[in-house]
Write a structure and sequence with these properties.
about 130 residues; seven-stranded antiparallel β-sheet; mainly beta; 9 strands; Jelly Rolls; single chain; globular
Length: about 130
């Protein structure tokens, strides 16, 4: 085992004991739904953000853990009670409940790690409820 860059290589945590490295190429997200090897379990991925997200997303198959490592973001959650903001500053984390629409406003360049059960993930444009 050698060290890897978590922005270029994700980790798939199966529902069993395995943690498998997953190379991320330019077509990763377009082909994700067809990858049977990534169904079930959770995907651990890392990102750098310099701009606000351009859409909402939600994950109906499970909660999502967001671990911000640096920077400043406001995570906006939209559920039956309406929108609410969770401020992430420096090192901070939030659990996004299963099925809750969420987006992020980036206030300063940020890095974060996501742990997501991604089956059935949905997206919608900003401004739609």
């Amino acid at each position: 085992m050698t060290a890897f860059d978590p922005i270029q290589t994700y980790v798939h945590l199966s529902d069993g004991p395995d943690a498998r490295l997953v190379e991320v190429g330019p077509d990763f997200w377009q082909k994700l739904e067809t990858r049977r090897d990534l169904q079930g379990g959770r995907l651990v991925s890392a990102y750098r953000f310099t701009e606000d997200w351009t859409s909402w997303e939600r994950h109906p198959a499970g909660d999502e853990l967001v671990f911000q490592l640096s920077g400043a973001m406001d995570f906006v959650l939209d559920d039956a009670r309406g929108e609410r903001t969770v401020a992430l500053r420096g090192r901070a984390a939030v659990v996004v409940p299963r099925g809750v629409w969420h987006t992020a406003r980036v206030l300063a360049p940020s890095e974060a790690i996501f742990v997501t059960r991604g089956e059935g993930t949905e997206h919608r444009p900003l401004g739609k409820t």
